[in-house]
Amino acid sequence: MAISLLYPDGIAPTAVLPDEGLLSHLSLEGAFGVICPDVKRRGYFMRVLSELNTDRRVIEYRQRILMDFRGNPTLLPRLTALSERFDALRSTAKQAAREDFRLTIDDSRSPDAAKNLLAARALDCKRALLFVKAFAELLSCGTIQSEGLLSLRKACAEIADGADFPKLLALCAKYENGGIHGFTDCKITLGEDGRIADCQLIDHRHIHITDPDQKRKAFPPFRRQKEPEQPCERLNPAKGDSYDTLICAATASLTGLFASMAEQLFERFAPFCRGLTFYETACRYMDALADRGLPCCFPTFPADGGVHIRGLYDLTLAMSTPGNVVPNDLRLEPEQRGILLFGDNSSGKTVFLRSVGCAQLLAQAGLPVAAKEARLTFHTGMASQFAENEKAGVDAGRFEQEVRDLASMVDSLRAGSLVFLNETFQSTAYDEGAEGLYELLRYFSDCGIRWMLVSHLRALEEKFDRREALILHTGTGFRVSEVSEMLP
Amino acid sequence: MSAPRLLNYESTPLPARLFDDLQAGTILSPAAIGVLRHPCGRNEILRRQELFAAMTREDCRARITASLDLLKACRRTLELWREANDRLERQALFLRLLACYPDACESIGALSGFGSLCDETAAYFASPEKRQLYDEMRADRNRAAALSAPMRKFLLSVSDKYWLTPDAAVRDEFDEIAARASGLGFAIPEKKAIAARADRSLSDGVCRLFAAQVSGLDAIAAKYAEIDWNEPVGYIGELEFFLEIHALCKRAEACGIPHCFPTPVEKRRYIARDVCDITLISRKSSGIVPNDVHFTEEEPFFFLTGANGGGKTTYLRAVGINLALFLAGCPIFATQAAIYPFGTLLSHFPADEGFADVGRLDDERRRADEMLASAGECAFLLFNETYSGTDDKRGFTLMMETADAVRQVGHFCLYVTHFHPAADSGYPILTALVDAADGNRRTWRIARKNGRTSSFAADILRKYKLDRESLMERRCGHGDQSSLS
Q1: Is residue A459 part of a domain?
Q2: For a designed S-S bond to B332, which of A433, B81, B322, B473 qualifies (C-beta 3.0 to 4.6 A apart)?
Q3: Strands B379-384, B412-416: parallel, antiparallel or unpaired by DSSP?
């Protein structure tokens, strides 16, 4: 089984966020662009975020690994450096495998070429084995407590400390150097149809030729010792290259075995190497907040369904203008199905929505959130719909586009999901928009889907009972509260 | 004594074109059609019917299928053995032949109890002499296997300039590494099979290295130099035919089409109830409508007329394909039947255009003349729209000339035609019925009828809006009303 630092079972979920726009709506790419300028690493991190984790075990698994890395500051950089070299070996071996395939399908194959391939694959296998040994040694140095790192250490040790490990390394080394003194000997097995069914290389020590001519030729001091008498037969020259073909087949068989072993090591340990990238970015994220004097915390997920966040702030602002960060609190009772947020233009409505969305997404990825304290609810799906301009080339007006997008979203959402809506249905008459939106939000509530709406449609405020939805307003200094400063 | 066969016939084959006309290729393999082309005569019909009847039993089918598998294995080995040039390969394949030949023969010997055809064949293969031969072969096979076992593994030293030595239970490097790797939890890939022919020099080398064993194997092979290895293999096609027809019956049964074994009668007649055109099952047609067939010496000739798309050609095919099946001793697709084993069955269907030097009418006349000339004394003839390639009057005249010629010789005949005056010709008429009360719905029923019939071509024209009213509406739609007035 593949070793993964992201998933306790080693298997990545196949489901991804149904709403591809969520990450961009929450501006996470921009915030993490400051934290991790490396596009490739950031891309991997964002991919993990976009695989909305719906397993509580995964959150705990990742949080503990992250704590281990924070507690052993040198472990992650050293593991990363080693894993990068391991990954480079994997890439080289992969490229070589393609080259091998090209060599095996055309007619340019010769015993020498086959032996070169064998030496290369034996070397790859040996190096991969030595990397596993190095991983095991590195993980034995510090104090680690997380299930993920402990199981990685165990998996590495099972190989590196095995009784057969040094013997296997020796066999790899033997073929890395072209066998013993370049001898080539095979064992041939005929099938029931009389054709050659198998041809494998054997160690030259198994060959006992008792040829009187050969013995006479040898210099007396170096003559072989008395060997057991074996019947033997000298072969006539073969037509064409049939013996070469047999040697190539035997060599290729062993090449395939070494390649398979190396591939198995790559398959098993590559996911863990990739997973390190996630933790590297996660540590940078925590460092970036700490450098700016901003708090962060690992959230908890009590089962009551309530949400309580203290000192929640926006990650994007924290990265660009940390001095402008305004922390806000949010308290959503378990029976409240949604949040309505009203406020003037540029009063921080969207920023607050973004803060809530980022906190939820990062929390479910097993990461700390940008707040002093956070108790969240676990969601099995997330989606967003932000008001947009009319799209070019779309055969419908803006309102119809919104309705169409929402219809598609409604089809994909299930109970337990969370939806973020920003100024939805404001592209039509407000009373009609409010009416339509009310029906939609009621539908979400009835289906067990939590929602958060930022809107100017104040008519909605009258339609909802306070026990059913939390109604918030932005006010002076970007503060969010249940008290409205606006005229009714 | 030569081996008795399961399929015996000495008659002139039916023309291949007949089976094309009947669309037999849609439900039967070319091999089965090849058998159907040979009517087998009254006695063989009864003997084949016995076997087909026995095949309704599970044990019979199981034994035939098992035998067929063994026979095919034997044939494959035989083919490989004959193709093999290499000595090692020939020896190995001969070893296999010594195992599969007696198995195949004994499987045929076990086919008794399924009718006289099988009993005769089984008795031949289960005779005491044959049994003794099988026992000897098996004993020799075991001896040969013991001799050749050490020859199957040997070591080739390339380092020492191509030397061969026997295998002293040497563990190869793949197994050596695999053992270490599996100890560390690696999954070991399977060794890649080679299946390459040994080079002549390698093969000779092995034979020299194991000279005593090779000489023993040659002695065993020499002992069977006179055996006719093909003898059991010849039954493959025959057994496949019986299985294929049986499978067709099962397939028909699944579509609700019954089958029966017609009684071969002395008097010339073809009487059957609920006959179906079995080729329709290949088109997945649902609700295939059965019809009766009633040809006797008193009324051996029928014209068949009626509505387009009413099932005339289907009926013609049903009559033809079932007769062909009966003549080859097969069950037919009807509920009951009594049929005379006609000497031949011939057809005349419209041919595709493409006559290099003659027109369609000339081609039809030529084919009709040839058909009558080759019909012999007691034939069943099938005509489908013959002479439709000319004007009404001429076509009708030619059709009547042919009908008279057929009647004069005394052949049986079914003639599908659109020439409605045939109803006044004095010949009995069959017609495809429609339900006038239901908008001339096709019933697919064929019945005897006196008087003129209609082809109901207007229905089809209306359906495609080419009838008079539809064409008028079209003109109105295009503002061409004035020209009509």
Answers
A1: yes
A2: B322
A3: parallel
